[in-house]
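Full entry
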Amino acid sequence: MVCDTFCEGDSTVHRLDARVRLLAGAALSVAVALAGRFEALGLALAAAAGLALVARLPLGPTLKRMLSLNVFMLLVAVLIPLTVPGTVAFRIGPLSWTREGLLRAAAITGKANAIVLILTALLGTVELTELGRAMARLHVPNKLIHLYFFTVRYIDVLHHEYDRLRRCMTVRGFRPRMTLHTYRSLAYLVGMLLVKSFDRSDRIVAAMKCRGFQGRFVVVDRFALGKLDAAFAAGTVGLLALLGWLQWR
């Protein structure tokens, strides 16, 4: 699948209850997003790296995911120091980068890397369907659960449909270039993909209603908390308290 995760494994993190991982990931992400001091961000990055090691994330795919993030963060690091007022750190022609802007860009980059690594270690190691069932057990609104399940189920279908349309364009002689014809053709491709998506969604709704769907999925899995889950939850609370102390002491 296009949205494959790192769910295959037998690490300590893989054995945790999905509900515990979901709550811990959400709490840690909020705490890291609120952190501003570099002491707290350093602890968050260290904790994220530790979770990745405990979860035994494969090095290659993980680095590829982080590289994709940091390509975007590089753009942030270039633009933010140009707009934040403060002491000029260096100039290139008419452009000047401020020290305060560089610090803010570094803080944003650290937050983004810590959050992505934490969520990859905690939620990327959960099977996609199991994560949806955990959301149902935590009483997440049904509409959000439906949106999640249908996204997981059909994003791969739509990706294959996109590949088929691209192959058809290639067979007909399409070659992407920096021309108006290329932009127009790609716009037609996106439009056709949207039309096919809407048509498929209508057929899916009709098929589900024919099968008696009444607006909620029945969850039959029985989650059970164990000693490992309790220990991990206690460690997460301790980490949150330490992050809070470093940030607001």
Observations:
- The two ends are 46 Å apart (CA to CA).
- The chain has a mean pLDDT of 86.
- Strands lie at 88-92, 95-98.
